[in-house]
Amino acid sequence: MALLSNVQHLLEQATEAYLFGLFEASAVVARAALEVALVGRWDAKHKGPAPGAQTGERLKLLVAAAAQRGVITEPQRSLAVRVKQAGDNAAHGGQVDRSRALSALVALRRFIGEF
Questions:
Q1: Residue (of 114, 8, 10) closest to 66 by Cα position
Q2: CATH assignment of 2-113?
Q3: N or C end of the chain, less CB within 10 A?
Q4: What residues does each domain of the chain span?
Q5: Which is it for the CA torsion 53, 80, 38, 73, positive or negative?
Q6: How far, in Å, CA of 56 to CA of 113, rounded?
């Protein structure tokens, strides 16, 4: 229950950032929420650290491993990739427009809703 609360809190922050026109911030926080959700899901189903825990590609590796091992479905993987790409783009100096930020938020909400 604490995991869902943490993810919900981040989702609310991402939504507020979007509503204030802070689209890059919204995408980055949505990405963080995705990572928290996936790590929590991984920990609940597997023993040991999540894939990529010590690398800069943690989320990429985690999404791939979670899909491969049935922790998430293929549709969830696609949603996760959409959120990750928007967040990565924003975090690395790219612009995220209103449409892309909204797409990331919708994908995150659908991803969480399928947990």
A1: 114
A2: 1.20.120.330
A3: N
A4: 2-113
A5: negative
A6: 27
- Tell me the two tokens of residue 50: 């999540």
Cβ(37)–Cβ(63) below 8 Å: no
3-state secondary structure of 55: coil
Model pLDDT, residue 40: 87
Ranges of the chain whose pLDDT falls below 50: none
Structure tokens belonging to residue 70: 């049935």
Longest dimension (CA), the chain: 40
Rounded Cα distance between 36 and 48, Å, is: 16
Smallest CA-to-CA distance from 49 within 65, 73, 70, 33 is with 65
> Is-contact 101 29, C-beta < 8 A?
no
Which pTM value belongs to this model?
0.89
In this prediction, residue 110 carries a pLDDT of: 96
CA 111 from chain centre, in angstroms, equals 8
pLDDT, position 97: 97
